[in-house]
Structure formats: C-alpha cells, structure tokens
Amino acid sequence: MLARGALCRLAADVPKTPHKLPQLARLVRGTLLGRNATAFPTIRAFSRACTAALHARRSYATTARATKPTATVKKAVKAAAAKKPAPKKKAAPAKKAAPKKTVKKTAAKQPAAKKAAPKKRARKVVSPEDKEKAVIRELRVKALKAPVSNRPYSAFNAYVAEMCGGPANKGTTLAASNKKVIDASSKFRTLAPAELEHYNHIANEKTTARRAELQAWLKSYTPDQIKTANNARALLRRKLAGTLKKKKYPAHTNKLHDDRHVKQSPSAYILFLKDRYASGDFKGIKPTEATKLIGSEWLSLSSSEKKNYQDASLAAKAATAAA
Q1: Whole domain around residue 226: which residue ranges?
Q2: What Rg value do the Cα atoms of the chain yield, rounded?
Q3: Could you give the number of structural domains in the chain?
Q4: CA atoms of 18 and 75, how far apart (whole Å)
C-alpha cells in the first residue's frame, strides 16, 4: 500500500514534457525518502532501477518541437534582422606586388691568363754632351750666386738710373729705353763739376751699401763653403771660356774674397816662380811653356840657392801664423 501511494504521488507530480528527466529523478528519490519507502526491498530495488534508467537516457531533447522554430519566432527573427543595418565589409588591403627577383647569370669562369713578365727598362745611354751639362749644373750649384755684384757703383750709373728710372718710365718699350740711355750718356758728359760731385757722392754710398750686403751674404756661409764655391767658379771659367758671344767669362764666376779665409804661405818654389816672372824673361811665352822652363831651372839650382827661397817661405809662414 505504501508503494502504491508513492507511485500515485509520483504520477501526479510527473512533468508533462520529456525534457525534465533530471527533475523526475529528483522527485522519485524525494518521494521515496519522504515516506521511508527505501526500507522495503522492493521499493529500494525500484529506486535503483529508476536511477539507472535515468543515467542511461540522454539529458537533451531531439523532438521536432524542440528543434524547429515556430512561425511566430521566425517573424520576430526577420523583424529584428530588418531593423539592424548590415555590417559594412572592410575592403581588403591591396596586396603589394612582390618584387621580381633578378636572377644573376653567373658567367662561366674562364681560366686566368698568365701575367706577362714585366719588361725591363732599357738603360738610357748618356752622351758625353749630357754628362758635361750635368757637371756644369752641379758646378753652378756649388759656385753660389751672390745677391749683388762686387763691382763699384759709378757716378754714371747713378745719373742714368735717375734719368731713366722711376715710375714715370715704367711700361716704356725697349727702343724707347735705349734712346733714353743714349741721351743720358750724352748729357752726362756736359755735367757741371758740382753736379758731378753730387752723383759721385751717391755712387760712393751705393758702393758701400753693396759691399756691406755682400759681406753679410758671405758670412752666412762657412769658409769651407766659400772655398768650394771659388773652386767651382774657377772650373766654370775654364769650361765655359770661349762659349759666350758677348761676355768673356760667364756670370757669377768671379772669385769671392772672404776675410775669414786663412791665406796659405807661399812655398819656396812659388817664390822662385814669382821672381822669374817678375824678371820679364818670359814675356810673349805661353804660361805652360814658361812654367816648364822655370821648373827645369828650379831643379838645376844648388842647395844654397834654394835655401834662400826656403828661408823666405818659413818667414812667410811665421807671419801668417802670427796674424
């Protein structure tokens, strides 16, 4: 009877839809527990069977009513869709064209050509004339070039410089300058003594200034350098003698007079040579021939005759050392 009452109550409270199976299981268990029906073996077995059946069934519905929407629902969905504006589709960004890959063509490797052996430079054959020119260039460097001339400044030079020089005569032609020099030379001959004295005074001042400048230039070099320069100048005079048309000797080849240079005392033979030249016996004879004759005479002198010249040479050396 207890079981019948539980089933009746269960039938009254069973949900009408099959979607509420979990609720049905809870209802069965609650009814049985409320009436203490689980104490009976039959009811307990029934409860277990219901629970097993509940777990074996699916918990979701598959009926047509649950899956298909009604006409009312369809109308509501259509009305809501009509009210909402369709979302604008974003334009897809334009794809950049991929740069074309340039495939470099690899040229076929050619075998490296053998390097030609470097050609040896042929030695330049220097002619005797070129050698002589090179020697002269070297001598000119050693000879040194003085800033001013050692020649004295004359009154005529002062007068011509005053008449033909100055800014007023700049830019004149060569012919006009030569004409002015000729006119100045003719006027110089007719100068009064007072005017000539004036130009002589100017010339003396110029000469003194020149010599002072030349001495300062000489002292800027050592005595050995001045000696080397004089030797080079002497060689240039010998080598270039007769090669110039207007001048007898080339420029800057005069001997440089240096006060610091210690003069060598003459030897006995040099003293004898000077005496023989001073006698006048060798006038009109070439210096080379005269030197040969004097040398033979020196060899033929006796010891007593040579002693006179030797004593004179020693006295000259003593005087040079004392100075």
Answers
A1: 128-239
A2: 70
A3: 3
A4: 27
